[in-house]
Specification:
Length: 429
């Protein structure tokens, strides 16, 4: 590449900080711009106050800056058609089309796509009316002899639209609240009811260009807010990579049975996928089954993957955006652990504007990078500006080493009401 890339990253969370951090370290990249960014991103990129969901303004910024590549972080702009708009203006964009993004924008679409193309997933039904939903719920729990059932909002709910209900009474109560718009608003006006799958969860992401799939290394997320995998679901409280639950053979099987047929199915239906395809998997005794698809990098999975990446991220993403094949993606053999620190009250209501102390001390812990998820600068101070505030990420010789480094850094950081799980990376194989 004769000249270095000028890259615009869209978004302002922990995932985008990790992407900006990795791009800033890429030999192929000359400048990184981020819209809108956050206090941490501002240390590695030039931040511009354009919101990620302001698609026309983002496209105008890309034109004004004459960027070589746009990397779209969040799902919302992709579902709204930002990639289509950018491509229509002649911009190279890493991010899928609006049509392909429906795989995350509508869980009903995703489940029906899997049914059409024989992609393994849980038994399900999709409903917008309570009587039909309750009837299906009764039949599913009786037929399976199930004590638990999963209820999901059809639309985008920032990782909070999933409820695992224990027993029929709780399931019906959660179902009524979701359909009434009481839990996640309009995103829950249509719901998916699924059988509960037993097994261990893993996240497997891949760079996809049409029918070409280049898998990344797997990671294991911790979704619930409290230790021991208890409490309400969140956008993610911490993550580990590598994970003992997915061997190389199991990754190969998931690529063969899930990612490749999904890419082929989308292409066959006139929705070719170009960007990052994320499969949330349950590893059952009968093989991998899909819990959900996302149309973008995971958060906080991206934090650990960027910490382990042994490639030039700019070259990889530009190749996918311009239709050049990516055969494989190399990662360090070292392990990475990310511990998420949240504002008090998350995933419910939470205050903002709380001063954060100890960031410099945390960054001095060997192997640690503190990715900012919900922060802003207030004069000389950095304060909280979201529910998930920081993703304290450490690399070590193995998971135990990385975990110890991450928690040493967490202990150095203080802000009023800070919450984090103490058991990230402690699960047994």
């Amino acid at each position: 590449m004769a000249t270095k890339l000028k890259v615009l990253v869209v978004g302002g969370g922990g995932r985008e900080h990790a992407l900006c951090w990795a791009l800033a370290r890429s030999p192929s990249v000359g400048e990184v711009i981020c819209a809108p960014g956050n206090a941490g991103i501002a240390e590695v990129a030039r931040c511009v106050p354009v919101k990620a969901d302001e698609c026309v303004q983002v496209a105008d910024l890309a034109d004004a800056e004459n960027v070589d590549l746009v990397v779209v972080g969040p799902e919302g702009p992709l579902v709204a058609g930002l990639a289509d708009l950018l491509q229509a203006r002649g911009r190279a964009v890493f991010g899928c089309s609006r049509a392909a993004a429906e795989i995350e924008g509508s869980k009903t679409f995703a489940k029906e796509l899997m049914a059409r193309h024989s992609i393994p997933t849980a038994a399900f039904g999709a409903f917008s009316q309570l009587p039909e939903a309750e009837l299906f719920l009764d039949e599913l729990m009786r037929a399976e002899g199930a004590e638990r059932v999963v209820i999901k909002a059809d639309g985008l709910a920032a990782g909070k639209g999933v409820v695992i209900a224990g027993g029929l009474a709780e399931a019906k109560s959660e179902l009524r609240k979701m359909l009434a718009g009481e839990t996640v608003g309009d995103a829950g006006r249509r719901v998916i009811i699924e059988e509960f799958l037993d097994g261990r969860e893993a996240s497997l992401m891949a760079l996809v260009d049409g029918e070409r799939v280049a898998p990344l290394v797997p990671a294991e997320d911790h979704k619930t807010v409290f230790d021991g995998d208890t409490g309400p679901m969140t956008g993610g409280m911490g993550v580990v990579s590598p994970t003992p639950v997915m061997s190389d053979l199991e990754v190969a099987r998931a690529v063969r049975e899930v990612l490749e047929p999904t890419a082929r199915g989308l292409a066959a239906e006139g929705r070719p996928f170009r960007g990052l395809l994320y499969a949330g998997l349950m590893l059952t005794r009968r093989g991998p089954k899909v819990l959900e698809f996302n149309c973008r990098f995971g958060d906080p999975e991206t934090q650990v993957l960027m910490a382990r990446l042994d490639e030039d991220l700019g070259l990889l993403l530009h190749a996918v955006a311009t239709g050049r094949p990516v055969e494989r993606v190399r990662f360090s053999e070292r392990a990475a652990v990310c511990v998420v620190m949240t504002a008090p009250g998350y995933p419910g209501g939470y205050p903002t504007g709380i001063p954060i102390a100890g960031l410099d001390a945390a960054a001095r812990v060997d192997g640690v990078t503190v990715f900012h998820a919900g922060t802003r600068r207030d004069g000389d101070r950095i304060v909280t500006a979201g529910g998930r505030v920081l993703g304290v990420t450490a690399v070590g010789e193995d998971v135990d080493d990385a975990r110890a480094r991450a928690y040493r850094a967490v202990d150095a950081i203080t802000f009023q009401g800070a919450h984090f799980r103490t058991d990230i990376g402690r699960r047994s194989p």
